[in-house]
Amino acid sequence: MQKQLSKALILLIILSVSIVGLFSFIVLEDYYLKSVKADLLSDALLARDIIGPYLADTKQQSLQNKVEFISLQINKNITVIQRGVVIADSKNPMRCGMKEPVISGSLTQLFTFPSFPDIWKRQMFFIEVPGVLPEAPFIVRVSTPLVQVKETILKISLVIVIAALLSGIAALFFSIRFSKRIVSPIKEMIRVTKEFSRGNFTELIQTRSDNELGELGDTLNFMAARLEKSLQELDDRTTKMEAILRGMVDGVLAVDNTGRILLVNPAAEKMFNISAKNASGRHLIEVIRNYELNEFINASLKKGIVSFKELILLPGEQILRVHVSPFRDYSGKTFGIVAVIRDITELRRLEKVRSDFVANVSHELRTPLTSIKGFVETLLDGAYKDPNLAKRFLNIIDFETGRLYRLINDLLDLSQLETNQVKLNMENVKLPVIIEEIMMIFDVRLKEKNLSFSTHFPENLPEVKADPDWLRQVFINLVDNAVKFTPRNGKIWIEAAEKGNFVEIRVCDTGIGIPKEDIPRLFERFYRVDKARSRQMGGTGLGLSIVKHIIKSLGGEIKVESKVGEGSKFIFLLQKAD
User: Fold this and answer.
1) pLDDT (0 to 100) of residue 149
2) What gap in Å lies between CA 42 and CA 70, rounded to an integer?
């Protein structure tokens, strides 16, 4: 009776082990394949969204380098196909230009690369996701070797079968009084595997024998090590993707097909003054109060196409260029969108500055040229026969020619200063000596308008470190303005005082003054408070802009204090001499 019971128990163990092995293989294979498919889909969508915008703007070699870089990050092969031809392949760049069949609508397939060398002729798991560009659609294929998947499934199934078999043997031996030697290690395995399930891989199963039970313990330890490595690789890949997003200068927003935010990178956080943690899972319009951006992204979600748009973000009036690209599932259905946002405010400002500069230069050149041309034509028509009239016209032509000469010289000086092409000869300069030289130039003009001039320097005023020639130009421009805009019998004076490591200099007058609203723009090129009066006095509109750049090149700064009807003070700092 006992022998029959033992035989029945053995048969029951064998049957149980067979059922467990078959069931575990089927369940594990299905589960693991789904996991591989999901991983492939996630990587393919990520690769497609990164490659898509880059594909439209780069050359072949740059695209190949980009594909190889992404492949290293996700540890899978990437192939980009356009119009049935391989245009980039991370594993074998030699395949570029070869024709490649595309299996549309397939989530995953098994296939063999026919055009690879013999060492690459093996079955692969792959996924193809479509990408859409205005010029042409493309396909991103991400693949991984099938053999690795099968080996993992077989190993895990083998471990479970062995575990079930040894559990049955343990039960059998327990029935014949070997329970203590068998059950204790199994209990230890159960305890340690529970730690594995909690993510604790530091504690391993201690195997004290060379039999199957010891081999099982070694196998479970190996499985735990592989699992820990896989989790670490997943963490590393996630960290790399986060590093890529953090390193991007452009803002990146990802939303699902309901308009809820999935991802916000640091650049977008700063751009919109939002928090990624608080934004995740909320509707876009709740986080970023910009109706135009919200409507544009919603429209792109419905259309499912790559789109571009420029919009203004208030209250700072930032100009943003938004590039949106949809991401799709295996069936081609759009289930989200990625928006790459670039702040082009400075670019547009520079474009406007350039446009304004060209317009101003054209106007300033055209005005004296028109006058010169008109008087020359009048002289040629016979006015030269009248000596008095001819002399008057020639004086006007000389005046306008002088304006052109000064304008061109000022433009050349300003260009050199703005592009840092000026070579400064820095010396220790005594301010009183420079001022005395300057006032000799203005002596006649001061007397003509009966303007008084004075200086107010302390006896122990230190020397300043500057280029004497450019410093003279600063004083010439400032004093020239003071003389122009100070009425008869007015006063002009220059004062200076030590201020820390600098010397503060003030060029003052009792002139007509500058309106408060004009002061912020006073140092802009061609900006004039009274345009008609400035041109009548021969000004080019560049003098103060030149002064600002000279002071900046000398390591100082300049500002203005002025009231209408009371005069102006131009205040700037220069470094003290060593």
Assistant:
1) 62
2) 13
C-beta of residue 133 within 8 angstroms of C-beta of residue 63: no
| SS3 sequence of 198-233 | CCCCCCCCCCCCCCHHHHHHHHHHHHHHHHHHHHHH
pLDDT at 570: 93
Residue whose pair of structure tokens reads 């040629």 in the numeric block: 380
CA distance linking residue 467 with residue 147, whole number of Å? 75
Query: pLDDT tens digits, residue range 111-164?
Result: 433 433 333 345 677 788 887 666 667 888 888 876 666 666 666 666 666 666
SS3 assignment, position 492: strand
How far is 154 from 163, CA to CA, in rounded Å? 14
| For range 247-255, the mean pLDDT | 82
Neighbours of 36 (CB within 10 A): 19
Residue with tokens 């699902």: 256
The tens digit of pLDDT for each residue in 353-393 reads 677 666 666 666 777 787 788 878 888 888 878 888 888 88
Indicate the helix (H) or strand (E) that contains 289.
none
Cis peptide before 266 (omega within 30 of 0): no
Place of tokens 């020239």: 480
Query: What is residue 127's three-state secondary structure?
Result: strand
Distance, in Å, from the CA atom of 529 to the CA atom of 571, rounded to the nearest integer, reads 19
The answer to whether 108 and 127 have CB atoms below 8 angstroms apart is yes
Q: What is the pTM of this model?
A: 0.43
Residue 562 DSSP class? E
Give how far Cα 548 sits from Cα of 91, 394, 475, 478, Å. 57, 35, 12, 11
Other Cβ atoms closer than 10 A to 129: 24
Residue 205 has pLDDT above 60, yes or no: yes
Amino acid at 309: K
Pairing of strands 491-499, 452-456: parallel
Strand 251-256 to 77-82 pairing: unpaired
> How far from the centroid of its chain's Cα atoms is residue 483's Cα?
49
Determine how β-strand 334-343 pairs with β-strand 318-328.
Answer: antiparallel
pLDDT digits (tens, 9 = 90+) for 474-483: 898 899 889 9
Contact 188, 206 (CB under 8 A): yes
Cβ neighbour number for residue 390 with a 10 Å cutoff: 15
Q: What is the distance, to the nearest Å, from the Cα of residue 126 to the centroid of all Cα atoms in its chain?
A: 32
Residue 118 tokens read as 């013999």
